[in-house]
Amino acid sequence: MENRRQRERAVVGMSGGVDSSVAAALLQRQGYEVIGVTILVWTPPGVTPEMEESCCGMGAAEDARRVAARLGIPHYVLDLRDRFYREIVQNYVDEYRRGRTPNPCVRCNEFIKFGELLERAEALGARY
Q1: Which H/E stretch holds residue 122?
Q2: Distance (Å, rounded) from C-alpha 115 to C-alpha 128?
Q3: What distance in Å separates the CA atoms of residue 113 and residue 46, rounded to the nearest whole number?
Q4: What is the torsional sign of CA 123, 125, 127, 128?
């Protein structure tokens, strides 16, 4: 089974935090070919991406890049900030104006984080 795993590719959404970093390391240890992907989705108004230290900013992407380098795995950063604004922020504003209270995190998880990450994983030939 170990030989089969060595040929299988897994994409890990890397936030720069401990959980995703450990997940990447454990998969690598189990013999998977691991690729790290960090998704940039939000830069608050008045904040440059370089200043942003949240899970969605360049600081997190840099942390993930350092972990990937230490593990010796490829790491890609997907800049989806424009799409996030169009599909998540604008939807939130429109719905709020209609008197509704949408949850932007749910939409982001479905359409940006998991949807886009799955598409990229498939494009990279990853099974997992």
Answers
A1: helix 115-123
A2: 14
A3: 24
A4: negative
Q: Are 59 and 13 spatial neighbours (Cβ–Cβ below 8 Å)?
A: no
**Residue 92 CB-half CA count within 13 A:** 11
Residues 6+ apart with CB under 8 A from 97: none
Contact 64, 16 (CB under 8 A): yes
pLDDT digits (tens, 9 = 90+) for 63-92: 999 999 999 999 999 999 889 999 999 999
Q: Nearest CA to 66 among 56, 55, 79, 75?
A: 75
% the chain with pLDDT above 70: 84
Q: Is 23 exposed, middle or buried (0-12, 13-18, 19+ CB in 10 A)?
A: middle
Which residues partner with 112 through β-bridges? none
d(CA 111, CA 85): 12
Q: Which residue has the higher pLDDT, 52 or 46?
A: 46
Residue 94 has pLDDT above 60, yes or no: yes
- Residue 90: per-residue pLDDT: 94
Q: What's the distance, CA 90 to chain centroid? A: 21
DSSP state of 57: S
